[in-house]
Amino acid sequence: MTLTTPIPLAEARDIPLNSLGFAKPPAETRVVVAMSGGVDSSVVAAHLAAEGYDVIGVTLQLYDHGAALAKKGACCAGQDIHDARRVAERVGFPHYVLDYENKFRESVIEEFADAYLAGATPVPCIRCNERVKFRDLLETAKDLDADCMATGHYIRRTVGAHGPELHMAADPQRDQSYFLFSTTPEQLSFLRFPLGGLASKAETREMATQYGLAIADKPDSQDICFVPNGDYASVIEKLRPGAADPGEIVDLDGNVLATHRGVIHYTIGQRRGLGIGGLGDPLYVVRLDPDARRVIVGPKEALRTKIVPVTEVNWLGDGPFEGEIQISARIRSTRPPRPAILRATGSNRAEIELLDPEEGVSPGQACVFYAPDSTRVLGGGWISHRRGG
C-alpha cells in the first residue's frame, strides 16, 4: 500500500524519486518520525521503515511523566512513550525520548492559562505544533542530519508551481488542517505527512495490524493532553490560584441576572450551566469581561458575527499578502469553511468578512483560510476580538 505520491522536482526529472520525493534510494534517505505513541505516527514509522528508509523515531515528553502514567488516550507522556518505544523495538529502528517539559510549559501551557484568564478560548494543540513540534523538534531532526521529518497528521503536502502547498486530508472526517495553519513555507519544505491521502482511519488501523503493532486498536486521543477529562477550569485554578473568583452574570444592558463561580468556567456560545433558567427565551454567553469578573449573556442572535479581526497571520498563498482576497474561512475546527473576504490590514493582520454571519466566534480561536472551492490551505490567524454584524 502506497501512502505517498512521488513529488516531481524540476531539477531531478531524470533521476528516480523515492516516495518522499528525494532523488536517491530510501536507504540513503534519513527521516525523523515524530512519534506520539498513538496509532497514526506508529504506522508512519513502521511503513517508512518497511520501505527501507533510514528511520529515527523521536518522542517528546511534554508534561509530568509520573502524573500521566495512568492516563490513557493522551499524548507524549507515560504509557504513550512506552508504546512508541515498543513500536521502534518491534520494527527495528532507533528511538529517542526528549524531555521538552520546560519548553512545553513555557511555550504552550502558560499561554493557555493566561488566555483563559483573559476571556479567550485558546487552542493549545496549534501552539504545540507551531512552537514545539514544528520548531524545536524540527531543528532537532536537522541536527540528526535528517532529509525530512514525518508526522502522523492527516493533511496533505503537494508541490505546486510556486513550491510546497498544504492541502486538506483526503478524509474530511480526519482532516487536521485547522490545527496546522501556522506551518511556515520553510517548515513545509522539510515536513512530510504520509497519512494525508488515506481514505479513512480504518485503513490506518488495518496497516497497524499488518505490521503487527500492538497499538492497532488503541483509542484516539480525545482531550488536550494536559487537561484530564476536559476539565479546563481545574487546570487553570492549579496554574493560577484565585482564578475562579466569583462575579456577576449580566444581560446586554448590564442588568444583574445571577452570580457565577468564575469566568474561567464559561465560554462564548455556552447555554447550559448558567443557572438563569426561567427568564424567557434561552440566553447564551456572548462575551466575557474578566477584568470586571462579568459574564455577559444575550439571545442567540447576539452571537452572530460577520467581521472577524485576526492577528499573527501565517500566509501560504502564492501571491503577496495584501489587498482583498476571496477565501473560504473556517472559524472552528468542527465547522466547514464558509465563503469570506480577507482584507489585509498589516503585514500579519487581517479582517475577515464572513458572507454569512456565524455564531460562537471566540477570541483565542483560529481562523483558517482556504482557497475557494479548493482543498488548499492559504494560511490563517488568531481571532483577536469579536465584532457583531
TrEMBL record:
Its main location: cytoplasm. GO terms for molecular function: ATP binding; methyltransferase activity; tRNA binding; tRNA-uridine 2-sulfurtransferase activity. Residues 309-383 form the tRNA-specific 2-thiouridylase MnmA-like C-terminal domain. This is tRNA-specific 2-thiouridylase MnmA. Signal peptide: none annotated. Disulfide bonds join C128-C225. It is found in: Cytoplasm.
